[in-house]
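In the current project phase, we have settled on a layout for protein records. A sample record is reproduced below.
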Amino acid sequence: MALAVAATGAAASFFYLATQGAGPDSIARAWSAAAVLRILIAPALALAFLVCAVMAPGRWPRFALLAATAIEAAAFACAAFSVLLGLARLRA
């Protein structure tokens, strides 16, 4: 279940990055606003998955939860890097 939730984070991050080239009045750009909401909760989910991984009783659930933690962290990091890069372009 955790990997499925993490996959939605990765998909939201990909969708957000893919729609950056769309025009401001594009439908895809409007939908990417919903993706931003999913990306914003990624750090909290990553922390929750990490806590669950620490308390997991078996080896394979622990690996799955650690993978979900890594996916959530990567999804948030990609989106945050994109935003920071955009801000740097505006400033320059």
